[in-house]
Structure formats: structure tokens, C-alpha cells
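step=predict obj=Leucyl aminopeptidase n=460
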Amino acid sequence: MSLSLFSSDPESLPLHVIETAALSGWLSDQAEDVGTWVRANGFRGKLGEALLVPGAGGRPAMALAGFGSAETRARGRFALAAAAARLPEGSYRIVSGLPEAARSNEALGWLLAGYRFDHYAEGDRKRRQLVAPDGVNAARLQTIAAGECLARDLINTPASDMGPAELEAATRNLAARHGAHVSVVTGDHLLDHDLPLIHAVGRAAAGAPRLIDMSWGESGPALTLVGKGVCFDTGGLNLKPGSSMGLMKKDMGGAANVLGLAHMIMALGLPLRLRVLIPAVENSVSGSSMRPGDILTSRKGLTVEVNNTDAEGRLVLADALALAAEDAPDLLVSMATLTGAARVALGPDIAPFFTDDDTAAQMLADAGENVADPVWRLPFHMPYEAEIEPGIADLDNAPSGGFAGAITAALFLRRFAGSGRYVHWDIYGWQPKPAPARPKGGVGQGIRAMFDALPGLLGL
């Protein structure tokens, strides 16, 4: 991972952020040669435009970044990052034009724009650093960016180097950085610890399935994060076509996101008791694979008819949620790359969440708006409960019909989450094409909104 931090260079180049409509007014306050240069280079303040302006001796005297208009900015996020990508390597400090209300998100976008996944091949190594704008909490933003980039790195790493054992190692590394404790139940010992669904999904793979359990903090409200850690998903005996299998290294995106969120919480010392549960498996094909039609008994005692082995994520989450609920945390959160239905409904850019708590829902919606992390509430629609009840068993992991797949999956998980406050996220975890501050590849979704909302959700 390559990630720029805020600059402390006293020689940073002045950067003027200029809206299209404000350009003429800004030029009227400049020397004539500056106006001549800007006009000659066609700079108009459009979103994503960038320009160096020379001074005496031909050296850069300032830089300009186009900020477009309110309308063009509304069509995306991290407007300043779009211009940052077009600036040459160097250190910059904003001296005009960036509204106070936008400083925090735009500074974060600048940091995120510096991310490169360069473990396997060198990419653009240019470092475009920014002096933290006045009024922003630089340490907080750098920590949030680091958590986001941890999630990106984990998702981007191929399954050959990010199987269940490697996901455990990544969790242990994070725990060691923050003084957290990790325990792991592996392989057939899952049955000894009454985690049969995790075992059933992962037993066919060469890499043993496991339940990773990290804890941190000794006082304050209890928060438990559960992340789907399917390190690769072939679909099992209901084998995916090749076109659907190509991105399945990202099927542990829920685990990656909760680890990124956990880093934010621990690094900034939130006064709470944190637990992170990750069922880490590969859904593979062998003679020991679970089969369509199998009926499995969960940790909670509920039986599940397996009508599609490719609906495995809700199975491993079910056991982990049941385990989490036994401690009755003040807030239980699951994150998973769970259903294609969620993508069809909202596309790759918006993270849907489910909760029965209207107050929590409003807090998350507000937080998503505050931190440029778009989220949307979907309903636990009770009339669909019948869809997940097959009759031959308590629950069906893959209801027929194809309708409301994200909702029926969420209803399935809610059966295991206990009676406390619960939020479920059905994320995509992938940026399908490059955008400002978000290169193509793994991405965090919902975690900045979740982190921003935690003080209100937990009364911190």
C-alpha cells in the first residue's frame, strides 16, 4: 500500500481552489501575466482541471485547482482529488477558494487519492502531498484514510495470498499494533465449539475454515463487528460461471471493511469495548462439499435447508452472529458482500443497510451525508419472512423466485442476531471504474459513515 500523509513542508506551493463562476473575479485580483498564462492554457475552473502558474525565473509560483460548480460537484465526490491527480509531484497548501464546510471531506479525498496497490507491480509513484487545511483534524483524517486503505489492500490481494490463514495473519497484525487480543478456532475444532455452519461451508477447501475473534478495550459500551470472510467463492457445487467468479477475491470484503473500521476505532482510542468476529473460509469444490438439499443445524439450533451452495455467506455469518448475540452487545453490526440484488437495487456506489431502529437509521443516513460515504436504508420487510421458511427446515438459505434477494438475506441474518440493536450492511466492496480518490479495485463502503455515527449510536 502507498498512501500519502499530510505534508509539513514549509515550502509547499500555494494552491488556489477556483469555481468556474469565480474565475473571472479571481483573475481580476491577479497580475496581468498570471491572467495571460491562465487564459492561454485554457483553464476555466472546471471540475478536475489543474494548472501550475510560473513565477520569476520560470519556477512554479502557485497552482490552480478547478472546483466546478455546485451542480457538477453533486454528480460525484471528492472534487479536489480530481484536480490533485493532474498536479505534478510536490507539496501543496490551500490558500483560497475551498469552503470551510468542505475542507474535511476534500482533504480526506486528497489523502485517498494517494492510494496505490503496488504489491505486485509499480504504479504511479508520484506523491502529491497536501498541508492539512485550517480547521481539520489531521490526525483523525489520516487514521480514517489508513483504515480505508487497509480495507482496500485486503480486498485487492488475490486469494492465492489472502486465504483464511492470511486473513487471520492480517487480523493478528492489526491486533498487535493496537494491543488487542486474538483467538482463533480452526478446522474440525469448529464443530467442537458449536460453529457447524462455518465448518460446513469451508470444509471442502485446502485452507482450513476458521472463526477469528479479536477483542479490544476494557470499558465503555460493547460494539461487536461481524465481517464475512469468504476469501474466494467458487459457488461450491452450484458452481459460478467464469464471468461471475472473476471478482470473487473480493468476497471477503465484509471482513476487510470491519478490520478497516476496527483500525479507526482503536487508533483513535474510542472509549468502548470492541469485538470483531470473522468467519474466514473458502467456498470450494471437493468430495466433502456441502450439497444442495442438505439440511444443516446452526449454532443457534435453527435448521437450514441448503438450496444453493452459492448462498454461503449468510451461513457463515449466521453462526458468527449467534455467537456475538450471546454476549448481548450494545450494538451488533454485520458487513458482507452478500447479494447481487443489493447491487441491482442501488448500484456499486451506495451501501445499503438494514436496521429496525429508526433513530440509528437516521444517524447513519446523516453520517453518510456528512462524510461523503453514500448509504441507503432498506427494510426488514416482515411479510417476506415466509420466503425464507421452506417447511422442511426452519430456514431456507436461497428462496426461489428471485425477488427481494437483499431483503430475504437480511431477514435470514436477523434470525441469528438476537434482540438487541442490530445493523446489517450489504456492501459491494469494489470500485468498478476509476473515480476521484477511488481507483478501480477494492474499496471501503459504509465504514466512514459507521465510524462517524458511533458516538451517537453508543452515547460516547
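step=describe
The chain has two domains: 13-136, 143-458.
step=end
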